[in-house]
Amino acid sequence: MAARNVAYREEIFAPVLNVVCVDSLEEAIQFVNASPYGNGTAIFTSSGAAARKYQKEIDVGQVGINVPIPVPLPFFSFTGSRGSLRGDLHFYGKQGVAFYTQTKTITSNWQFHAASAQAASSMPTLK
């Protein structure tokens, strides 16, 4: 999908799958952030560092990591960003209390066999 595509230029609420192929993580972040809308996006990766960078730098309300864009359960508020918000009040949930807070829902799925090393849990010491 290119930036000139109607699905990129307009906010479509329908069962539409937009697939974008880019050359780098930075290009993906720029592509998503350049859109006037910010409902949701997903990234599929085996790199925890890439996932963390993506979720931190992307300006959307819902981020899927190794899962499609999550549809929020009732106890999560529906989150959006930029042109995806209408008015000064949000839909429901905690957003009704803190409607000036920009929130982001992150959903991720990591396979245990993908870990190449076990996390260190000891206190580093100077020797």
Automatic annotation (TrEMBL):
GO terms for cellular component: mitochondrion. One of its GO terms (biological process) is L-valine catabolic process. Pfam families: Aldedh. InterPro entries: Ald_DH/histidinol_DH, Ald_DH_C, Aldehyde_DH_dom, MeMal-semiAld_DH. SUPFAM superfamilies: ALDH-like. Belongs to the aldehyde dehydrogenase family. This is Methylmalonate-semialdehyde dehydrogenase.
